[in-house]
Amino acid sequence: MSVGKRGALFVFEGCDRCGKTTQSRLLAEFLKSKGIPTLSMNFPERESSTGQVINSYLTNSNDLPDEVIHLMFSANRWEYMNKIRKELLAGTTLIVDRYSYSGVAYTAAKGLDFDWCYAPERGLIKPDAVFYLKTASDNLLSRGKYGEERYEKLEFQQKVAEVFNRICEQESSYWHQIDANQSVAEIHTQISGIAEKLQQQVDGQPLNKLA
Ligand code: TMP
């Protein structure tokens, strides 16, 4: 089934402090400057009911079994699926800072089974592109404010990076690996070029699901 003019779903992924937030903002500003209706979101969305539990977990004020917090992160995305679908079909492009792949990468990095981690993500809307900001782990520590939240430890981030690299290989048809050690401007030029081209191609394309 084809649809009319729809927005694109662009996702940013990468380890903590890799520059995703800056690049998401720059891409949103770029698309808006081209007259494209654009909305920014991020996961976890900390305001919702699941989001508040996730926030207190991340700031180390409550502990939960790994399986439970994993399913909470996934439920947090499912809470927003109707909104995301509605916005995309109304022609709004969404720029999302973290998505299912962070869910898989952070939990699999703890040693849980990769397929188990991916299962609750099946059925969520599939992004049109994922921009993976790949950072050499030696550079992670030099990035500001590193170390305040639960997962911000170098050894753990290295494991997360390994899972992201695996997903990047598996999903190479729509994942774009970007060298995060370039300048902010260079990274933005690369990403905005890809996004602008894809933006024109999604017209009439149905929304796909993560399978
Ligand atoms: P943030 O710093 O981008 O707000 O993300 C908060 C932390 O939550 C970050 O360390 C990555 C982690 N995370 C997961 O463990 N699972 C998920 O599904 C998501 C979206 C983030």
Task: Describe the overall structure.
By secondary structure, this protein is of the alpha/beta class. The chain has a single domain (9-201), classed as 3-Layer(aba) Sandwich (Rossmann fold), CATH 3.40.50.300. Helices cover 45% and strands 13% of the residues. The protein is built from eight helices and five strands, in the order βαβαααβααβαβα. Strands 2-3-1-4-5 form a five-stranded parallel β-sheet, with helices on both faces. Helix 1 (20-33) crosses helix 8 and helix 2 crosses helix 3 (66-79). 34% of the residues are buried. The mean pLDDT is 94. The protein binds thymidine-5'-phosphate (TMP). Residues 16, 43-44, 58, 73, 98, 102-103, 106, 149, 151 line the site of thymidine-5'-phosphate (TMP).
